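HOLO CASE FILE
Compound: fe (ii) ion
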Amino acid sequence: MLDIHTHILPEIDDGSSSVEQSIEMISMLVEQGVDKIVFTPHFYAEMEAPEQFLERRHEAYQKLLPYLKEQFPDIRFRLGTEICYYIGVSVMEDKKRLCIEGTPLFLLELPMCKWERSVITEVKELVRSEQVIVTLAHIDRYFDFNPLSVFEELARMGVLMQLNADFALEKRHRRFIKKLAKKGLLHFIGTDAHNTGARCPRYEDAMRNLWPLRDYVFGNLSVYEEQFFN
Ligand SMILES: [Fe+2]
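Model generated. Tokens follow.
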């Protein structure tokens, strides 16, 4: 099973604060049955250039690498990025370098508010650039502000959707998640784990809660996991 969204790399963003914590987070995921983990630290274009970010990501990864090989030889790890939306993201140069390694997936975090039409237009421009497959991060954060029709509009253009596992923990969300799946608005689940405390990975509990929806949800998730991660 795949966790496509994590802040496990040490000392690079507001996620893991040490190599020890990173290892503990990975251990938690592995115990929960996850065997593919993507490291997706935050990238904020207003704070640094992509080159600087990639250099910092490389350094953080190097700190962890010896332990990955030694302690988790059977787990597959990939580097990725959670790109925070900014005006002009659609014309960013060389977008592929921020995609999840070995995939065209561009994990994009949108503002947590009602999206101006200009935001949607910019996302569409990004899709039209045809260099990447836009994957919206933690779509559950946007539902309070934006109607499902907007997500459907983007999905029709080929935008993929990632839901946070924490949203799927709650039974009262089941019916809504079923609706998402039936409308083709659920492609990936990620823990978006930041630490071993309040924002620890809770993948297994989320999957257990989704078990009654397995006919709607699991098949779809595995199709996308296989397409991009096998
Ligand atoms: Fe995140």
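CASE NOTES: Helices lie at 19-31, 50-71, 117-128, 148-156, 165-168, 174-182, 203-210, 214-229. The chain has a mean pLDDT of 97.
CLOSED: yes
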